[in-house]
Amino acid sequence: MRTMPWSEMQRHSKEVAAAVDEAGEVCLERRGEGSFLLISKDRVEQTREGLDALARLLNALGGDDNAETLGRALKAALPWVKFLPEKDQIAFAREFTWTVGACSDLGLWAPFGRLLHSWKQTAAIHANPRLAKELSRALDADLGPVMMPTEGDSGAAEEG
Q1: Which residues does 114 contact at the CB level (< 8 Å), separation at least 6?
Q2: How far is the CA of 107 from the CAs of 15, 54, 102, 129, in angstroms?
Q3: Distance between CA 6 and CA 16 in Å, rounded?
Q4: Which of 3, 89, 98, 119 is the right S-S partner for 27, CB 3.0 to 4.6 Å?
Q5: What is the pLDDT of the chain when averaged over all its residues?
Q6: What is Dmax (Cα atoms) for the chain?
Q7: pTM
Q8: Are the beta carbons of 7 and 13 closer than 8 angstroms?
């Protein structure tokens, strides 16, 4: 992937477009802010078609008859899965296949990224037995009153 400064897009857009045609995608770096990725529409559509086909394949393979095979494949592809307890490995496999299918149908992959991140964090907790024990113990004390959420806590200001 070719990387160019954001200012190149502003000053020499034809050269940036030529770089996208040549390299397939260009990362536009901005000072002090997140970078943008410039990619052709054809390339995005091809990627979506590939992801859709993979999602449909995973959903077809993810039935109860293939649960054990899918579980082994997930452990091989994502080694951190081995730290999850057996019941969580099964839950992860089911959620993985369901989310892949749903994300493919919607054309939105952020929920899939969040799913992987949250299960990976769960695996990290189980990889640390002391932390897993501490977080899974029952609370034996009253932690005090729960405060009512304020308007600022609800996110209402962001929605309106």
Answers
A1: none
A2: 30, 13, 8, 38
A3: 10
A4: 3
A5: 87
A6: 66
A7: 0.67
A8: no
Determine the pLDDT at residue 153.
65
Per-residue pLDDT tens over the stretch 2-39: 999 999 998 999 999 999 999 889 999 999 999 999 99
Percent of residues in the chain assigned helix, strand, coil, to nearest 5:
70, 10, 20
**98's tokens:** 């369901």
CA distance 94 to 92: 5
Which two structure tokens, joined as six digits, stand for 92?
Answer: 């992860």
Cβ atoms of 115 and 101 closer than 8 Å: no
> Which DSSP state fits 83?
G
Paired tokens of 95: 């959620």
Tell the burial category of 119 from Cβ atoms under 10 Å away from its Cβ (0-12, 13-18, 19+).
buried
Residues 50-67 have pLDDT tens digits of 988 988 888 888 766 777
Alpha-carbon gap, residue 44 to 9, rounded angstroms: 20
